[in-house]
Amino acid sequence: MASTVPAHRSSTHTPPSRYNFMVATLTGLIGLVALSYIGGAIAFLLPRKGEGAKPQYIGKVASGGVTGSGITPAIGNFASGVAGPFVYDATGRGDAQGVFLVQMKGAQGSDNVSDYLMLEQTCRHLGCPVAWTAGANDNGNFNCPCHGSVYFKDGQVRQGPAAAPLYKHDFSLDQSGNLICKGRISS
Ligand code: FES
Predict the structure, then answer these.
(1) CATH number, domain at 93?
(2) Is the pTM of this model over 0.90?
(3) Which atom of ligand 1 is nearest to 148's Cα?
(4) What angle do CA 93, 143, 96 make, to 5 degrees?
């Protein structure tokens, strides 16, 4: 007896039903939503730039040493009131950026950590690294080589185009004078 299946179609072929189409579409949509959640979770877990993965040893202030938890003002590269830049890994994945340790005006001889700031080298305009230029009378400026922004010694904007002060970082010193950066404390 002759077959009734058309020559171009297998006898086992089943045409897609509306039900199968809906199942496939829904499965795809659920998969996309799941992927977006997984991506969001990964992004949440990864450290963001500036926060650092954990407190990091970034160098020694100078041979002046440390008294208690404070700082004996340093010599050498700290003579102008600003030491650094020290290298800080901003994400814990080799994303290096510079930070300065700044001795505030009039704080010479201070052993108190609160007389010091740790400022990030990143310009708040477009992110170029700023450089310290010492001035007279315990003053000076951080200057950005890219578009001319200037910051006071405490990181506040003196001249734009930058519209925000340099980022501040939390820090501490151990008993050997090792400087430990703990990440940004200002946004
Ligand atoms: S990046 Fe510093 S002034 Fe533009």
Answers:
(1) 2.102.10.10
(2) no
(3) 3
(4) 5
